């Protein structure tokens, strides 16, 4: 909350309307100045307290005020937003140029300046002018980048009646319009009469369109879970809309001179972006343009069927600055321009030339500050070289990431090829992995001495029929197979369909998979040891005391220097989807994991890196690093030793009898 002292907004009723307006303007101007002063001091103070250098502290500026109705919610009522990043243009110096012998300096010099303006046509004109000047190569290049950027967006496609997901998406959209949109009253009435049937709306609309000879079109959302660290594929929110991803401007801050370094402004438009999403889109784009990963990796990143996570890299936060908010619905209701621009329809709001100019000036000022921030040591760097901050990010972050991403991409190609081969089989999903996973005969059944006792006790626990059921929360992140082959699965296989059904309120779930307790095929997961605070202590402590003791002893034998853990997760034939472990870790917060049994495949993936953990223990941070298990053949047990927050200093071995 920002508070600042100001005289009250009192306007005498004796004034004429014109004088009242003038007085109001004066008061607003005073208010604006005062708020901006307070913001400046406050940001400087916060930056100082956090050790952030002044030029990197960020800026917020207020340009005016408008009274909104109480119901207005700036976050919830947003129609769409634009996010901007300013990056040094050399990040787009790609293999294409290198292959035709253009060096970095020539590339940077050839980049023509164009600015974004409030009138979009200006920007378009600027680009058109460039084209007329006729640098064929340059134009081709920009066009190619544009095509690539489009692949990151959500397309509008014709509704495919055989595709349940797009039919539902259309129905959902129409239902929403029926509630809030144009001509909504009639449709809402109809809905009330007919009941809330999604399919009905689709059918009616389809009939109408067929008469008109038109095809239905629908926005095809995609999953952006690979572009964030905080959302997994199975969570509804990972389905997002990205309307545009584009090159908005090329700017040179030292004038358009020979030695002036160009910066490129990249923008993304959508309704709601996931944490880090745009930074990841830009970083992946850069990695492709620079030729570190193939362009087809975009297909892999968005492939709904591919069960692996493909973590995307992130660009440094340096370039992130302004974004534009669009409240189209509220502009009508408030009779005001809420997104600064030229407009003749609405009476009030951010439409005056002076406000628009002030905003553009501020935008330019901010971008200039950012261009300086990219040049970390402030020294003049010749155009034949990358800025040091760029070089560092590329060498220490982007290239190592690309190495792993290429491995994942190759894996994707193998998977895709195998899938094509088994397309017509009864259960293509399972058959793909049947092909990709080595046969059981390829491994030795020998059990290393250290593990023999634990494995024997695990098998005994399995045979006892008392293997505890998995908690619902854990089941969400496990690939499920139903025990009973004849049992009809109640959930659709497609995450997208699940997502849409839930969104439309057909059933209430926060996640695309649902399980009954004890479902999940032959797989299962439970814990032994200590649980923090009020949680019930694991039943398995008393159910399998011998196994518990042997398992805690195994940790000490495997890692004598590791502080003994308080708790162990014990998994049987569990193929985990990408997840992070729930809760938080205590102390060193690294979990120890190892797998046992006669199986092939089943590697543990950690942030895209493949780890064979069969009788090979591995330490990793399960609370921050996303991890999952690749499909496997055979019998696979895994033990995860960890100490959750609240169990600090507790050693599970001390709880054993
Ligand atoms: O079985 C594995 O390899 C992974 C286990 C895991 O991630 C977990 O128990 O949370
Ligand atoms: Fe885990």
Automatic annotation (TrEMBL):
Residues making up the signal peptide according to the UniProt record: none
The Fe2OG dioxygenase domain, residue ranges: 553-644
BP-aspect Gene Ontology terms: mRNA pseudouridine synthesis; tRNA pseudouridine synthesis
GO molecular function terms attached to this record: pseudouridine synthase activity; RNA binding
GO CC term, one of those recorded: nucleus
Domain of life: Eukaryota
Matching PROSITE patterns: FE2OG_OXY (PS51471)
PANTHER family in alphabetical order: PSEUDOURIDYLATE SYNTHASE (PTHR11142), PSEUDOURIDYLATE SYNTHASE 1 HOMOLOG (PTHR11142:SF4)
Descriptive protein name: Fe2OG dioxygenase domain-containing protein
């Amino acid at each position: 909350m920002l508070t600042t002292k100001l005289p009250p907004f009192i306007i005498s009723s004796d004034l004429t309307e014109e004088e009242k307006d003038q007085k109001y303007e004066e008061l607003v101007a005073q208010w604006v100045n005062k708020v901006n002063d307070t913001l400046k001091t406050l940001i400087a103070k916060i930056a100082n307290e956090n050790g952030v250098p002044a030029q990197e502290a960020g800026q917020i500026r207020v340009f005016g005020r408008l009274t909104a109705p109480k119901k207005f919610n700036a976050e919830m009522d947003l129609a769409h937003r634009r996010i901007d990043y300013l990056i040094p243009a050399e990040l787009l110096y790609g293999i294409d140029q290198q292959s035709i012998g253009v060096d970095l300096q020539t590339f940077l010099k050839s980049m023509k300046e164009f600015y974004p303006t409030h009138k979009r046509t200006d920007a378009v004109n600027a680009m058109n002018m460039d084209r007329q000047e006729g640098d064929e190569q340059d134009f081709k290049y920009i066009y190619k980048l544009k095509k690539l950027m489009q692949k990151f967006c959500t397309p509008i496609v014709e509704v495919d009646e055989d595709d349940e997901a797009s039919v539902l998406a259309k129905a959902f959209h129409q239902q929403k319009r029926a509630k809030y949109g144009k001509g909504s009253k009639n449709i809402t009435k109809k809905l009330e009469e007919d009941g809330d049937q999604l399919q009905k709306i689709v059918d009616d609309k389809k009939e109408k369109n067929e008469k008109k000879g038109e095809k239905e079109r629908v926005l095809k959302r995609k999953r952006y879970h690979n572009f964030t660290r905080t959302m997994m594929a199975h969570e509804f929110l990972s389905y997002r809309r990205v309307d545009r991803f584009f090159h908005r401007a090329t700017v040179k801050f030292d004038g358009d001179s020979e030695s002036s370094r160009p910066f490129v402004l990249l923008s993304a438009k959508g309704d709601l972006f996931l944490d880090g999403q745009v930074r990841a889109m830009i970083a992946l784009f850069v990695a492709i343009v620079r030729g570190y990963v193939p362009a087809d990796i975009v297909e892999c990143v968005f492939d709904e069927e591919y069960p692996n996570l493909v973590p995307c890299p992130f660009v440094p936060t340096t370039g992130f600055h302004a974004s534009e908010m669009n409240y189209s619905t509220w502009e009508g209701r408030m009779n005001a321009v809420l997104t600064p621009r030229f407009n003749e329809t609405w009476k009030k709001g951010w439409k005056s030339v002076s406000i628009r100019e002030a905003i553009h000036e501020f935008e330019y000022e901010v971008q200039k500050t950012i261009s300086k921030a990219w040049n970390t040591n402030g020294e003049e760097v010749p155009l034949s070289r990358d800025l040091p901050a760029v070089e560092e990010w590329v060498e220490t972050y982007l290239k190592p990431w690309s190495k792993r991403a290429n491995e994942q991409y190759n894996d994707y190609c193998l998977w895709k090829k195998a899938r094509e081969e088994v397309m017509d089989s009864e259960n293509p999903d399972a058959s793909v992995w049947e092909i990709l996973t080595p046969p059981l005969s390829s491994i030795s059944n020998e059990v290393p001495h250290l593990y023999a006792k634990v494995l024997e006790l695990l098998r005994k626990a399995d045979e006892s029929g008392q293997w505890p059921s998995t908690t619902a929360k854990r089941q969400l992140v496990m690939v499920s197979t139903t025990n009973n082959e004849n049992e009809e699965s109640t959930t659709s296989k497609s995450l997208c369909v699940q997502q849409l059904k839930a969104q439309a309120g057909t059933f209430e779930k926060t996640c695309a998979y649902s399980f009954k307790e004890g479902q999940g095929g032959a797989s299962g997961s439970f814990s032994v040891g200590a649980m923090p605070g009020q949680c019930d202590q694991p039943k398995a402590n008393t159910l399998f005391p011998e196994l518990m003791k042997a398992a805690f002893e195994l940790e000490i034998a495997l890692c004598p220097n590791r502080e003994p853990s308080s708790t162990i997760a014990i998994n049987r034939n569990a193929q985990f989807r990408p997840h992070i472990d729930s809760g938080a870790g205590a102390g060193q917060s690294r979990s120890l994991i190892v797998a046992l049994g006669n199986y092939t495949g089943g590697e543990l993936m950690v942030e895209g890196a493949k780890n064979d953990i069969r009788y090979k223990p591995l330490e990793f941070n399960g609370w921050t690093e996303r991890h999952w298990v690749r499909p496997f053949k055979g019998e696979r047990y895994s033990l995860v030793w960890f100490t959750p927050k609240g169990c600090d200093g507790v050693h599970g071995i001390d709880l054993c009898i």
